[in-house]
Specification:
Blueprint: H1 5-16, E1 26-27, H2 28-37, H3 49-59, E2 62-64, E3 70-73, H4 75-92, H5 110-121, E4 125-130, H6 136-147, E5 151-159, H7 165-182, E6 187-189, H8 191-196
Parallel strand pairs: 4-5, 5-6
Antiparallel strand pairs: 1-3, 2-3
Length: about 200
């Protein structure tokens, strides 16, 4: 095996992450044994299983438990895995074009959808979002997009109208905490009118 480090990290990940779903954990000792069985033993141009795991951690694709016994995929790892799958699919189809974005997002594929959104935004700066159903989950999605490299204005405007005063209060509270944590001044618009009229 004379691939470079990047290719080996990819191959090992595609082999061993296949059955890992979001939030699931993998025993590191078992994983090392599996990687050694497929040739990652640190001999002649091959990374060791330990180097593979270290490389994944450096790339931000995995998080290791405090006791060092288990690992799980991060959002970045899930995104990377989805990208590799798309690249392999294009190769199988016999095309060498770059991945074309489908305009429609796919239900049940949050990682792929996040990557598509990040690609659509590209090098632009996200300054406003119009989502009539903005909730805590939507705000978490914005955090994840930021983690994928999307530039979001510190003064982001969120135009929304939650269904009830209770929902509005929850979103306002969550956004307040988020702004403190991320040192932002994101602003919800539409919520105050709802609160005033009820």
């Amino acid at each position: 095996m004379n691939w470079d480090k990047t290719e080996q990290l990819r191959h090992a990940a595609q082999y061993s992450w296949r059955f890992l779903r979001k939030g699931e954990r993998k025993n590191i000792m078992e994983l090392k044994r599996e990687l050694e069985l497929i040739g990652y033993d640190g001999m002649v141009a091959s990374l060791s299983a330990e180097s593979i795991i270290h490389g994944w951690k450096e790339a931000g694709w995995i998080k290791i438990s405090p006791n060092g016994r288990e690992l799980r995929l991060t959002e970045a790892g899930i995104e990377q895995f989805a990208q590799w799958k798309e690249e392999d699919s294009l190769w199988e189809q016999g095309t060498t074009e770059t991945i074309k974005l489908a305009k429609r997002l796919k239900a049940g594929e949050p990682a792929t959808n996040l990557r598509k959104m990040a690609q659509v935004i590209g090098n632009g700066i996200l300054t406003s979002v119009h989502d009539p159903y903005t909730d805590e989950k939507a705000l978490e999605t914005l955090q994840k997009l930021k983690g994928l490299g999307v530039e979001i204005s510190k003064n982001l405007r969120l135009l929304t109208a939650p269904k009830s005063v209770k929902a509005a209060a929850s979103v306002v509270s969550f956004l307040h905490d988020l702004n403190i944590e991320m040192v932002n001044q994101w602003e919800l618009r539409g919520v105050l009118k709802l609160q005033e009229t009820t």
